[in-house]
Amino acid sequence: MYRSIVAILFLLPFVAEAQDLSQYYKIYDAKKQKTISLDDIVLDMKNVDVLFFGEEHNDSIGHYLEASLLKQLSMSYENKMALTLEMFHTDVQPVINEYLLGIINEKNFIKESRAWNNYKDYRPMIEFAKSEKLDVVGGNAATRYSNAVTKNGLEVLRLLPAGSKQLLAPLPIDTLTGRYYEKFLALLGGHGMGNMKVYQTQNFWDATMAWSIAKYAKANKGKKIFQVNGRFHSDERLGTYAQLKKYAPKLKILNISSFSADDFDQPDWGKYKELGDYIIITDPKVKRSF
Fold it and tell me: What pLDDT was estimated at residue 101?
């Protein structure tokens, strides 16, 4: 049964119209301390500028929810939505725009935008944005820049030509300390100069994504922004979320943390409540997307 569910997810852009998958996810409102629906999140966006969706990159149900949520938000807010993504880089924005306008074909788009290997998971959002003429913003820094930071530290970015710097968050980039640093060290397994440069790369990604959101919001007053990224970038309102608050402190933000949970059948919401405004847990028995 689970394999057929995943097949449906890949074949249908908006499977909610074909089959109810609500039994495979649960949504918790951390402030109200109760389970809710996607409709409740959409309603809460009335006076909010940015909604983060922190995902696990291989969570099939999470990808279904992203596409469903984007569709519902667009319908509810009269297409005043924009999609910003970790999965595309700032330097391929012209390619994204050309595809959305129908000028280039999908094969060229996937190749020249350097789409992730699991692009099929994000394709429903891109295709919906294309059909509804929604803006899509590639928010992340290109790999060539992040590799340079990992090797030489953030200072190497000062050597870039002026045109290249326009693709990145302005210097200097804040290397967030405190809780975010502690979480990162725990993930990598301790201190070390190599780890510090990797941490600087993480901050570089966060800052560039946040700057991309802030820049778009400033140029497009009244638009609501749906930001999709790996959940480490926004859990506990750290990372990209925290960088965005620095660049655009007046923006109103809500945050989703979505992941597969071993306690799906009887969740302990208390241990997850600090991760975001909304916690989405998905059934771990559903096959991963890769």
Answer: 98
In terms of Cβ atoms closer than 10 Å to its own Cβ (0-12, 13-18, 19+), residue 194 is: exposed
- pLDDT for 186-239, tens place per residue? 887 765 545 788 999 999 999 999 999 999 999 999 999 999 999 999 999 999
Is the whole-model pTM more than 0.85?
yes
Query: Cis peptide leading into 284, omega within 30 of 0?
Result: no
Longest dimension (CA), the chain: 54
What the chain holds in terms of domains, given with CATH numbers, is 2-282 (3.40.50.11550)
Alpha helix positions (H), 102-172? 106-112, 123-132, 143-152, 162-165
DSSP, collapsed to helix, strand or coil, labels residue 172 as coil
* C-alpha–C-alpha distance, residues 184 and 189, integer Å: 8
Q: Is the dihedral of CA 221, 224, 229, 232 positive or negative?
A: positive
Residue whose entry in the numeric block shows the structure tokens 């649960």: 26
d(C-alpha 36, C-alpha 275), whole Å: 16
Q: Where are the alpha helices (DSSP H) in 38-192?
A: 38-44, 60-76, 93-100, 106-112, 123-132, 143-152, 162-165, 179-188
CA distances from 28 to 194, 271, 275 (A): 38, 12, 11
